[in-house]
Structure formats: C-alpha cells, structure tokens
Amino acid sequence: MVLWVVTLWVLTAIAPRYPRDWLLENLLVFASCGLLALTYRRFAFSNLSYGLFTVFLSLHLVGAHYTYAEVPLGFWLQHALGLARNHYDRIVHCAFGLLLAYPLRELLLRGGGLRRSWSYGMTVVTVAGLSCGYEVIEAIAAMLVEPQLGVAYLGTQGDMWDAQKDSLLAIVGAAFAMLCVRFSSLKECP
C-alpha cells in the first residue's frame, strides 16, 4: 500500500496542472502519511483500514494533480450524465466519509475506549466535525497562502453552497459506512 501511494504521488507530481495548488493540496497527504508512519508502532490499524486510507489518498492525489474541478473523470461524468459541473470533488468528499469512517471508528474503539453502541454515531459526528473544520481551514489557507490561487484550490465552480454540500456528502458517506458496518460482520472487527 505504501508503494502504491508513493508511486501515485510521484506520478501525480509530474506536471500537475497548477504546481502551487498541487503542493498546497499535498500538505495533507504529507501530514497524514507522516502521522500514520509515526504512530504505527503504538497504534496499528487493521489491513482493511489501511486499504481504505490508500483508496482515499489515491482519489485525493488525482484531484490534486488536475485540481478537483478539472479531473477528467469528473468531466466524463458531467457529459455522460448531463450535469452542470464537474462533480469529482463531491465524489471525493463523499468518499472521505465513506472510506475513512471505518478507520476512525477503529481508532475511537481501540484508542479512545468508546463503547461499541456509541461508536457508530460518534464516528459520523466526528466525520462531520472534521469535514466542516476542513472546509473552514481550506478557505482560510486559500486566502492567506495565495489569494489568486483560492478559486482553483477551493474548486467551488460558482456554487456558493459548495462547502456545505461537500460537508453534507462526507456526513452521508460516513452514515452509510456506519450502517453497513452495523448490519454486517464488520461490526465484530476492530
């Protein structure tokens, strides 16, 4: 999994559409991977969780390479479904909740000592907080680091409710993931 993420990171580092945007977007990848590496001996996630991290980081790296508003897959979906905008960013926000809810629940159960019955709701609430917090930090960072890059970095595509819709999709993704875990054999896992 590490080899895949590093390989994809190197490939997406080659001629990104907006190099400064790519660097700004990848600060989270560096921080996330660094944190996972530093804490591995004290808290190792399950293989499923590492697989989910890998899928999410892969989606993010592709989005950072093109900028989320200009990912070719999003344009293909836009044309195929007759949509008004490129929805790749919305897919990734939903994937944030869908793919990261399970590892987050694992962390809350094993690292935080949370009771199983509380873990489903707390996971969704935590994803909501992380997603909404990210939207605020993203807007502040875009304006402070490079105001001209703000539109490309934020990728609102003219939608004044973009941040709220993105957060809602993350929450829906997390809620769906927790419903799947609750009613499957995965609930017996970490």
TrEMBL record:
Q: Report the transmembrane regions from the record.
A: 27-43, 50-68, 167-185
Q: Give the UniProt keywords, A-Z.
A: Membrane, Transmembrane, Transmembrane helix
What is this protein's name?
A: Putative membrane protein
- What lineage, starting at the top, does this entry show? Bacteria, Pseudomonadati, Pseudomonadota, Betaproteobacteria, Burkholderiales
